């Protein structure tokens, strides 16, 4: 375990609830798979904290960082990011720099695929999902998260400039069912002031703000219990798909 991984491990309990939720879900899926060491493709993974310290061989895949918007939103790979990741992470098996809609990954190469807050950035979402499904072995699974389009609209002055669309629960389920045998979609994470405050970065230079963020994440964790069927005031959709 690297120093970075250790710091991530000890701070997980006070991190944003989406991170805790995704990590717990993925670890549960790994246990259910009953295989000693899974090969997992982390699509859009770049600096992704979601697969750190997992007992699996992780391949990070992302597009090259080329535009100013990508840089501002920390999207895509650069040589500096790659160097940093390889020093910090101990479970990285490989890194792929390519667009998933133009994927050259061989069929049935991975036991599972994780795609956290990525699909809303993709214009050709159908091809994106098709290539993810193609890369998964029979009996494997895919895990997606995306903003909850039943409640969060990507329009107006606060529109995310890199989001193509926000999915409704039924819309996402319909898309995924074209390529997976079984699809489960649920709502996740109560939104509001505590969730927003909790998303602020931690910094020793701003101890008061950091303590507020930690407190907010703890409150939001309790708020987010039992919301998987609640379409309003929830921030995310989570989909688990089986081959």
Your description of this structure?
With 243 residues, this protein is of the alpha/beta class. The protein is 34% helix and 23% strand.
What is this structure, in a nutshell?
With 243 residues, the protein is an alpha/beta fold.
Write the layout of secondary structure elements.
Layout: H1 3-11, H2 17-33, E1 38-43, E2 56-62, H3 68-72, H4 79-88, E3 92-97, E4 110-116, H5 125-135, E5 136-147, H6 169-176, E6 182-190, H7 193-198, H8 207-223, E7 234-242
Question: Key terms for this structure?
Answer:
single chain, 243 residues, alpha/beta, 7-stranded mixed sheet, 7 strands, 34% helix
Strand order, sheet with most strands: 3-2-1-4-5-7-6
- Beta content comes to 15-25%
* Rg from alpha-carbon coordinates: 17 Å
What pattern of helices and strands is seen along the backbone?
Answer: HHEEHHEEHEHEHHE
Low-pLDDT parts are none
Instruction: State mean pLDDT (0 to 100 scale).
Output: 90
Number of strands: 7
Structural class: alpha/beta
Q: Could you give the distance between the termini?
A: 32 Å
The global form is: globular
Q: Count the DSSP helices.
A: 8
Largest sheet: 7 strands, mixed
**Helix proportion of residues, in percent?**
25-40%
């Amino acid at each position: 375990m690297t120093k970075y991984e250790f710091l991530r491990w000890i701070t997980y309990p006070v991190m944003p609830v989406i991170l805790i939720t995704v990590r717990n879900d993925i670890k549960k899926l790994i246990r259910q798979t009953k295989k000693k060491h899974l090969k997992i493709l982390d699509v859009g993974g770049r600096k992704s904290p979601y697969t750190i310290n997992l007992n699996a061989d992780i391949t990070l895949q992302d597009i090259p960082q080329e535009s100013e918007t990508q840089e501002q939103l920390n999207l895509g790979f650069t040589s500096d990011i790659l160097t940093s990741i390889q020093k910090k992470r101990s479970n990285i098996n490989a890194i792929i720099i390519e667009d998933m809609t133009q994927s050259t990954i061989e069929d049935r190469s991975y036991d599972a695929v994780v795609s956290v807050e990525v699909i809303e950035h993709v214009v050709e979402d159908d091809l994106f999902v098709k290539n993810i499904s193609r890369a998964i072995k029979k009996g494997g699974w895919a895990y997606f998260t995306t903003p909850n389009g039943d409640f969060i609209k990507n329009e107006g002055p606060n529109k995310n400039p890199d989001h193509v669309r926000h999915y409704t629960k039924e819309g996402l389920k319909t898309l995924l069912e074209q390529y997976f045998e079984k699809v489960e979609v649920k709502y996740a994470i109560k939104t509001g002031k505590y969730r927003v405050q909790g998303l602020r970065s931690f910094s020793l230079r701003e101890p008061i703000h950091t303590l507020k963020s930690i407190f907010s994440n703890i409150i939001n964790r309790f708020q987010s219990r039992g919301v998987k069927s609640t379409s309003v005031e929830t921030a995310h959709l989570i989909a688990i798909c089986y081959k």
